[in-house]
Each structure stands twice: as structure tokens, then as C-alpha cells.
Amino acid sequence: MIVRLSLTALLASSASFASADIEKWLRPAEAPQPLNNKLTPERVELGKLLFFDPRLSSGGEFSCATCHDPKRGWTDLTPVSKAMGAGRGPRNTPTILNAGYQNRQFWDGRVKTLEEQALGPIEADVEMNMPLAELIPKLNEIHGYVKLFNAAYPGEGGLTQETLAKAIASFERTVVSTISPFDKYAMGDDNAIGVKAKKGFELFKDKAHCMDCHDKFNFSDGSFHNIGLSDGELRGKELGRYLTKKRAAWYGAFKTPTLRDVTKSAPYFHDGSVKTLTEATAICAGGGRYLNNVQNKSTYIVDRNLSESEIGEIVSFLKTLEGPDMKLDIPTKFPQ
């Protein structure tokens, strides 16, 4: 099912925002789609089956949904991701909510498209650990999948690495935020959020400068920042986007995550080191975890001199970004 956002039922008579602001804060009707992979019901349904099918992993135990669980905010609610065996991945599992609207994927933004992103975790040795050279022949032995791929991607060579990526990406584009109390407020329902949350929104936009990084409907600028979580010289995965683009501006920088449904996806930050929204807000608004000896800390991350009460008001606002879980029939049977 392709998800679309309906506005008409929620527009109220006394708008709290100018009409131009409504477009700024509300999700567009559809995620951007490449010309060679337009959404169709057949592609989305196929992608959903693949997303939940553990046979895509080397041991037959892990699926994409193992780490991106729809019942856990499309994450796994652990500090760092699960991995094959008893191991753990190096970073926190990012939510895939609204990933179709992002211009870069993964914490370090190493790929642009969902099609590129879809195959990475399958082959990663700390995730599903399944070489595509083994997976494609394996899936081609499953008659049900071959039939579905031919129907979803006619004339494209059947079940290939390319069509596998397209199908998973198609499903991921439909994983989108639902209408939250804040959305109702933005569309004119002044009673949709409380006084404390309204104060928090004003702080979010002005004194706290949260909007410097968390802007527009997805509450993300799509860029990368070093927010001062680590001090001194960085190594390994802590280098962030610098591992992908060795530019001084990217040293220790990670992608700005969406704040949509942020209440559902703790713990926070790329290292999963923060358990609560209150602590995460305090770190960002207080100039980072470390104030000194941080190389390349973002100029946006400075102490905003917020009181404990003001931080609480911002957290109250962030809670209004939580919408109901999207309607989804999770598959329990897979093609044979």
C-alpha cells in the first residue's frame, strides 16, 4: 500500500500557522522516487516480504526487521546494533522512518539512495553477513520469489541484485511518519498540544536553536555535524563522515537524525550512549558532552543557557512529534 497524507480532515478554522508554514512542517504526500523504481503495490508488497524474511541472512536468523523493528520505532532499542553470533555492530541502529525523504543514508551518509542502502546490511559481516553472490542464487531457487519479481519488475531480468535492491527500497519508502499532535497543531487545531509543549516549540525555534539542525517536516537538515560527544583524537567509526569524505569539515560528524517519533527510538545519538530525551536535549543545548578538546565541533553546538524547566518544555514539544504506528500487516509466511 502506498501511503499518502490527507490534510483536509484536519484543517481547522483558527490556524496557528501561516499557510506557508503548513507546507514547511507537514510531510509531503509521497517520498521522492527514482524514475526507474516508481512505487507500485507489487513492488511494495515484494519489498515488505524481503524486509521481514530471515532467509536473507547467512544463518537464517536475521532479517532487516531484526534491527529495524516496526514495533520498536523501526530500531532495535539497543545502544548498538545486533550482529551475527554474539557480536554487536559499531553504531546505534538508525530508524528508517522517513528515510525515503533523506538525501543521504547511514549515519555517515556513505550512500545517497535507498537502493544503495538496502544491500549494505545484507553483506555486512556485523549485520546479516550474506554475500550477494550467494543470496541471489539462493532466492532464485524459491519459485514464489521468482514469480513475484517477474510481476513487479517485468522485463528487468528477473531476480537480480538490482531488482532486489529496488524492491526493498520500495517498501522502505512507504515507512513514513503518521499525523502527530504537532501536525494537528500546525494545521490549525490549537488544542492539539499543551501550553508546555507550545513553549517548548518556541524555544526549539528560537533560544535553543534546535532548528539550526532539526528543520522542516522531518526535523532534520540532512547534513552532518560533530556535536561534541567525544573529545581528543578520534579513531575508527567515531570519525563519522570523515571515513567517507576525508575533509576536515566532516571530522567526527554524523547525520542529523529525524525527530519524528523520537520517543520511540531510544537510546540516542550514533553511539546509543544516551537513554533519555531529556539528557539528549541537555547535551545538544549545553554545548555537547565535552566543552573542550573537541576537534571540529559544530558551530551550532554551543551552550544556550537553558534552565532545567526550559529543557523540560522542549522535551514536552518533542513528545508531540509522536504519531500512531503506521498500519502494517507484518508477514509471517514467505514465498516457497
Descriptive overview:
With 336 residues, this protein is mainly alpha-helical. It has two domains: 15-26 and 178-319, Orthogonal Bundle (Cytochrome Bc1 Complex, Chain D, domain 2), CATH 1.10.760.10; 35-172, Cytochrome Bc1 Complex, Chain D, domain 2. Helices cover 30% and strands 1% of the residues. The protein has eleven helices and two strands. Strands 1-2 form a two-stranded antiparallel sheet. The protein is globular and about 60 Å long. It starts with 18 loop residues before the first helix and ends in a 17-residue tail after the last helix. The model is unreliable at 1-16 (pLDDT under 50).
Strand order in the sheet with the most strands: 1-2
- Binned strand content: under 5%
Number of strands: 2
CATH T-level topology of the largest domain:
Cytochrome Bc1 Complex, Chain D, domain 2
Secondary structure class reads mainly alpha
Order of helices and strands: HHHHHHHHHEEHH
Tally of separate domains? 2
CATH class annotation of the largest domain: Mainly Alpha
The biggest sheet amounts to: 2 strands, antiparallel
pLDDT < 50 stretches: 1-16
CATH architecture name of the largest domain: Orthogonal Bundle
CA radius of gyration is: 21 Å
Number of helices: 11
Distance between the termini: 23 Å
Mean pLDDT: 91
CATH superfamily of the largest domain: Cytochrome c-like domain
